[in-house]
Amino acid sequence: MQPQVALIGVVMGSCVALLAGLVMTLLVFLLLPEFHERLAGEFQPLLQAIAWAVLLTAAAVAAFIGQLRLRPWRMYAQFALAAAVLLAGWNYWPS
Questions:
Q1: How far is 84 from 14, CA to CA, in rounded Å?
Q2: How confident is residue 89, by pLDDT bands cut at 50, 70 and 90?
Q3: pLDDT tens, residue by residue, 58-67
Q4: Which of 9, 28, 38, 59 could tie 81 with a disulfide, CB 3.0–4.6 Å?
Q5: What pTM value is reported for the model?
Q6: How far apart are CA 16 and CA 10, in angstroms?
Q7: Count of beta carbons in the 10 Å neighbourhood of residue 26
């Protein structure tokens, strides 16, 4: 296995774990309607975090598959992953 595949695989695994945790949190929000008022302020940021996690996961999966199979478009996928990580970091960086 190529070292770059392993590195992208670690990033991809982290993105998938992040997305799974956020989706499970959403399920808890939806399954506890008695706390809807208390959690109402957290629902919109949770949906935004899920959208960012989906973007990161999709870019990581594309970069992983492209690098693993040595596709000609793999550099574009890696640039997309780097851009997604930078954008997510810029979005969540404290002001």
A1: 14
A2: very high
A3: 999 999 999 9
A4: 59
A5: 0.91
A6: 10
A7: 15
Please say if the pLDDT value at position 77 is more than 90.
yes
Q: How far apart are CA 54 and CA 56, in angstroms?
A: 5
DSSP string, 23-52: HHHHHHHHH-GGGHHHHHHHHHHHHHHHHH
Q: What count of residues does the chain have?
A: 95
Q: Please, which residues have CB within 8 angstroms of residue 8's CB and are 6 or more apart in sequence?
A: 60, 63, 64, 67, 78, 81
Asked whether the predicted pLDDT for residue 72 surpasses 90, the reply is: yes
Alpha-carbon distance of 26 to 32, in angstroms, equals 10
